[in-house]
Amino acid sequence: GQIFRLEDYQPSNYLIPEVVLDFRLNAEETLVTARLQVERIARAPADAPLILDGDGLVLEALAVNGTEAEPADYDASPDQLTISRLPASRRFELTIVTRIAPSKNTTLMGLYVSSGVFCTQCEAEGFRRITYFLDRPDILSVYTVRMEADRKDAPLLLSNGNPLESGDLADGRHFAVWHDPFPKPSYLFALVAGDLGVVKDRFTTASGREVDLGIYVEHGKEKRAAYAMDALKRSMRWDEERFGREYDLDVFNIVAVSDFNMGAMENKGLNVFNDKYVLADEDTATDVDFANIEAIIAHEYFHNWTGNRITCRDWFQLCLKEGLTVFRDHEFSANERSRAVKRIAEVRGLRAHQFPEDQGPLAHPVRPRRYREINNFYTATVYEKGSEVVRMLRTILGEDAFRAGMDLYFERHDGQAVTIEDFVKAFEDASGRDLSQFSLWYHQAGTPNVALSSRYDGKEKTLTVDVEQSVPPTPSESRKRLMHIPLAFGLVGPDGTDLDYQSVEGASVENGVIHLRKRRHQMVFKGVKARPVLSINRGFSAPVTLSVESRADEQLFLARHDSDPFSRWQALNTLLTDALIAASKAVRGGKKPVFEDELISVTIDLAADETLEEAFRALILSVPGEADVAREIGRDIDPDAIHTARGALLMAIAQAGSQTFRALYERLLDNAPFSPDARSAGRRALRNTLIEFLVLDSSSPEAAYRQFEDADNMTERAGALTVLAQHFHDTDVGRAALAAFEKRYRDNPLVLDKWFQIQAMIPSAATVSLLRSLMEHPHFSLANPNRVRALVGTFSMANQTAFHSADGEGYRLVAETVAALDSHNPQVAARLATAFRSWRSLEKGRREHARKLLAEMSKRTDLSRDLADILERTLA
Ligand code: HT7
Ligand code: ZN
Q1: Could you give all domains of the chain from N- to C-terminal order, each with its CATH number?
Q2: Quick check: pTM over 0.80?
Q3: Given 244, 273, 297, 311, which residue has the most CB atoms within 10 angstroms?
Q4: Atom number of ligand 1 nearest to Cα 326
């Protein structure tokens, strides 16, 4: 397959300032007429051919300046339209008619039908599945869209921008015309036509513009869109207050569809959402669902400025809009909820998803230099590490200079398609600082490691800290350059407050941040009055791994006393992870795992500490997962040993905390009416972590079953069911609960997904065959990405023992699903296949099973480009 390279970027010889689209919508056969105003750029040769992208298209007609084109003047294939003879004038009009089949489009890219609703997904390269076009993000056009459809099936006709006109036609047909005055790339085009219910609201912008807001959902589900509407209005206000960004059209619409490849899409003025990230009420959505909805509604809305008004020059620049917009949505959620809790959740996510990517065969820089299939670069590295890079930029510049840089970026580049260099330059110019070394974060793959040791001299009152950075090699990047790593820190004194120091030598330190720029720094803090414990990388100021030479009692001290809550959680997490690594080793050596009493008691004490918020205490009790431990072990991994070790730790905590947890669980029972706010969610989260310890301690499912039965909200119901499925799946109580849940929610797809998901996580030798039977369930279908992700995706990502079952049957199940899915929906198939990315770090029996299956799969000759790319890189 063809490889696209950043260094090959060439501006287009032709521009398309204006596009008029006409859709005759019909599920089986839709006729698309595109009228394009084309302009040859001044320096292009007059005979430069115009090469338009297509993907599986059928050309019906082509006219140039209104005259039918001569067959000799062009060449049309499903994937390309090349026009070799064009008018001598620099401006001309092309009319292109294509015929497409939305109902047969199973890839969910381009124009397709989801539950009877026509909808589009054009990012990254879906527009070329609708019409021939210069389908690249640096071609910005003003769109006018006319749609015609049966009024009965599609009373609703939406597109980008503002509505212009609408009306009836003969034979029960009707039409609508939309116009978007903001020039945009084709990937932001969208159309929706169908029969949907709506929730309406209004928003007045800071400068007084009245905006009509609409959230469109399946009829009967309108009430479940109320929370999303509230989140939208809060997002709009926040972007004004925090970044001075206002909305710019008369309408803002969101449509929820049930078949969607990703979370949502930021099409200008018409966001399309996976309904999972719109629909919520207490009976059907968990607190995590509510938080995700808030974050994704905000994320897509924030794209209006970071992505739409200023877009990417090419797809190598994806992080320009994604990393920045994730940073913005993280800040929004941190403001709306608890900053510390939000940060811990982000870091857990980064470590769970981005670190393994960065440390395995699929590693790539935040701004990649090459790709074969851009769909495979919507990754945790581009999104989450991309966000961490923006966060570091703020840490380095400080809030005010960061905001000045953002303002300059908006002012300078509004209406343009730009690069990461343009972005960084805005911050250099606004702050007067040289960010060239910092920029390596965009260009160099791999997770840096920072090794630290420190010693205190009580006589001299000095603390000497030795620091060394290294970046491990990654595919096709063996030699790494030194990074600029900002490490927030504190010197924690005996009473838990940060100690002052008089001066520091050996590295630049500003506002509580150490700036590492060299391989090694020896830093000497002078005038440190008492022996401190070094609290480093506070708030996870840099996305690095740390090797700290410190004693367990120092980490215990930080867990109990650090003034930064993130660092308290981190200290405990480090200790628990180390303990689990040691315990896994013991299990593998045929020994019984043991845990230090002090570690168990600090965990229980923190969980019970009423001065701390409940959500934080819930995180304290969520001991590192099996995948976290596996990642830290890094090689020759035996998932069964880790599972046994973790089970023993849970049991040790459960038994030691028995009294405390029981009392706390009862105390936390909230009789107030349900509210999705962060405080109430925190109480429920803590109760949900406690219930697992209660049933472990009592060796009985009773308490969990009671919670399952009594719950008046999905968080507690699904939480209890998860515990029952994890620990009592082969008991009557466990089976009864699963059956009751299925019966109650059979007709609610999003909730039924949870039922599939909970079973996919059961740690049992029988889970592979359970999954095979669930794949025969009348409600299972490979056509619905949410369902596939709920069952097979969850199995591969969140069931360490069964996916990695020693006989290779878990791998086989996933490989078979990937293969079956590939012809239907390559994007989802390729993503599922990334579950194999860490295969080399397993012990050799499992490694061999995985290698064989991957090799077998990659031999197939009918693979999609998406899947072939993932398999090839995974095996390389
Ligand atoms: N910008 C959106 C990306 C997206 C997408 C990409 C490829 C295929 C389907 C897709 N759906 C949405 C989502 C976002 O980051 O906001
Ligand atoms: Zn995004």
Answers
A1: 4-195 (2.60.40.1730), 311-443 (1.10.390.10), 449-542 (2.60.40.1840), 626-670+690-875 (1.25.50.10)
A2: yes
A3: 297
A4: 15
